[in-house]
Structures are given as C-alpha cells and as structure tokens.
C-alpha cells in the first residue's frame, strides 16, 4: 500500500473522471430527450450500474479485497434486490385492467 | 493487512480464533454488513417509487432542465468530488500523514455541506410551490410522498455522515483513531455517494418536463 499509494491516487483520479463523464452522458441524454421514458430508464440504469460498480470496485476498495469478502457481499445483496422486482408485474395490473381509465 | 491474509490456516487455527477469513478487521466487516442492509432499505424505497410511478397513469414531471436538473448535476459533482477527497484521506491515513488525512476529510465535509445546502434550497422551493407529502399542484399525491421520503432519507445519511466524519477527523487528528477507522468512515461516505447515483437518474433525469 505504501509503495504504490501515489499510483493509486492517480488511479482514483481516473475513476473520478470516468464517473464525471458517465454523469455528463446521462445529463445530455436528459437534455436532448431523444428516447422514450422506457428507453431512457434502460440506458440510465445501465450507466448507473456501471457507476456503482466503479465506486464499489475502486473507491470502496473491493477490487483489492479478498475474493471471499466480495463473494459474500455482492451476490447476496444482488439476489435480494432482484427479489424485490416481484412487485413490478403488479404495478402494471391497474393499467392493464383499465382501472385508472378516466 | 497482508500478513493476516498470508497466514496459512490449518483447521485447528481456524477454530482457535485470530483468523481473518475475509482478510478484513471486524470494523470494516461490520460497516460492510451495515451497508448491505442499508442498500436494501434504499432499494425498497426506489422500487416502491418505481412501483407507484408505473401504477399511476400519469406522473408529474416538474423538474425543468434549468434550474432543477442543473442544480442536481452540481450536487452530483459535489458528491463525486467528495468521494475523491475521501479516498485521498484514506490513502494519506494509511501513509501515516495525519495532517493530509484531516485536510482531505475537511474538504469531503465541505462538499457534503454544499450538497445539503443546495438540496434544502430545492426542498424549500418545492414546498413554496405547494408540494407536500400528501398533495401537490400537479395532481398525483404520491409524487411528494416518494420524492421527500427518498431524498429525505438520503439527505439524513449525508447529514449523519458529516457528523461521523467530523468525529473521525478530530479523533484521527489527535491520534486516538487509527487508519482503519478512517477507511471505514470512507466506506460509509462512498455508499452515500453510490445511492445518489441511482436517485439522481430515477428521480430527476426521468422527470424532466421541458427545458
């Protein structure tokens, strides 16, 4: 750690620049509004996941931790969050039944 | 850290204690477990917001590109930059450079404070426009509920992060805390940053109504 901490500082600056660039892409997409809401949602979620991965891997140091820690943390939380998606089909129910139609 | 990971654990050693199966100390592991549970809290709120937005036939898009989205972008910039100064603080702490570590933590806190000031400014703007938890001028009452709950819980995290960082800066500066404590507080701060990376697009960028 001590020997390559300046090296790491440069790496962190690069990650910061990458995060800023991804944010800029998101904001420009919101400005030009060339996609539908669903398309925007898909693109923004992919970009956000990339940003989250960069933050976890470098800023939160997970890339440099033991693999056992990463394998204990990430898959479990991913699965539990994915399980919450079970509510989304119900979200469309009211629309498909036409309940809200005025 | 490296010498812990290099210990070749025989079975007896594993059950004797003193072995680090994850290669991290108990503070860091504890913070990671807290982050796991907190990420589920925020996921539930974000998914709840998405759920009611899908289920509602219309959804207000009150955020104009100028000023709302521009301000939210500046807030994103502040949080990302505060993460950069935080990793600098952590590497300074590992080098044993207490002065540089405290200085970088103070920069991190200033950026966090700027975030809260801008965010509260926006909150008061919306409240002045008549947005409440239960009602707003654009019709769908749940808009205010989801917006204030999501951003409010996040702002609470930023505010408690400021207190946490202040304590760490003071105690590390005086030599009462070691570099692991700085690293653990850094994990918390980066997590707050990470959550904003989802709130910003979902709440702001998907609600831009006109330029």
Describe this structure in words.
The complex is a heterodimer of chains A (102) and B (211). With 102 residues, chain A is mainly alpha-helical. Helix content of chain A is 77%, strand content 0%. Chain A has 4 helices and no strands. The mean pLDDT of chain A is 87. The longest helix of chain B has 32 residues. Chain B is globular and about 65 Å long. The model of chain B has no long low-confidence stretch (mean pLDDT 90). At the A-B interface, helix 1, helix 2, helix 3 and helix 4 of A face helix 3, helix 4 and helix 7 of B.
Helix content of chain B: over 70%
The separation of the N and C termini of chain A measures 64 Å
Number of strands of chain A: 0
What's the number of domains of chain A?
1
Biggest β-sheet of chain B, characterized? none
The shape of chain A, in one word, is flat
* Biggest beta-sheet profile of chain A: none
The structure class of chain A reads: mainly alpha
* Large-scale geometry of chain B: globular
> Which two chains form the greatest contact, residue counts included?
A-B, 55 and 53 residues
* Sequence stretches where pLDDT stays below 50 over 5 or more residues of chain B: none
Global Rg of chain A: 19 Å
Please outline the helices and strands.
The complex is a heterodimer of chains A (102) and B (211).
Chain A: H1 5-32, H2 37-59, H3 67-84, H4 88-97
Helix pairs in contact in A: 1-2
Chain B: H1 2-6, H2 11-15, H3 26-55, H4 65-95, H5 98-128, H6 142-173, H7 179-204
Helix pairs in contact in B: 3-6, 3-7, 4-5, 4-7, 5-6, 6-7
